[in-house]
Amino acid sequence: MKSINPILPIKKIILFLSLVIFIVSCATSPMGRKQFILIGDNEMNKMGIASFTKMKTSSKVSQDQQAQRYVRCVANAIVNELPEQWRKQAWEVVVFDDNSANAFALPGGKIGVHTGLLKVATNQDQLATVIGHEVAHVLSRHGAERVSQQMGLEIAMQATDAISKNKMQNQGSQRALMSALGLGAQFGVLLPFSRTHESEADLYGLKLMAKAGFDPRQSINLWQNMSKASGGKRQPQFMSTHPNPEKRIEKLANFMPQALALQKQAQLNGKNPRCQ
Question: Mean pLDDT lowest for which of 18-27, 97-106, 140-149?
């Protein structure tokens, strides 16, 4: 009786899954980069809204009404410059009482800013740099891309696991293989994509804040402030999800002529934010 190679059906499954993933994952970011996306905006919006709702109950919302108005002023000026499909969302902006210099934006039109950021972003233009950056993550669908990468990675590792079980009887060798794949996936796939997202959000966010009339030159001051606030304690770049401050500032400086042209046009159109 002719034996059946168990690896062949698995290879067919992998080929089929790869074809399906290729067909449904075609997307392009606002900066023109090809993307791998398997999850729709509706699903991401639901997750973003649910996460933000939970955050408002588990984290302390700032009672400083002046800070709330100030942050909303900056955020609203940027939201007004978004493409229509994003601008028409009901954006919610909340300041959280947290000493960390942080901010975030979530799918579903949610923006959060920590009070600690207001000590580092010392004027409206620097705050606009951060909010523009975070909103750029949403418009670029970086969250969906990250979820999709994880989904694709899990499929690939499960398939590899199935193949290794057929090829290896030694359980120790199998565990070693999977550990190596996990490490390789972390440092070879996920983190480099995350640095790409950060760099992309820097430039797209700079465009958004400049189109709203904010001074893009303050973005460099902001990241210099961020670097000082961190005390210079950073991981090697290949293990970091964020670009080194020096490289980040260099890219912003190279993009500055285009951003300044956008700001000049915005000011000619009467856009001159005065958020306090």
Answer: 18-27
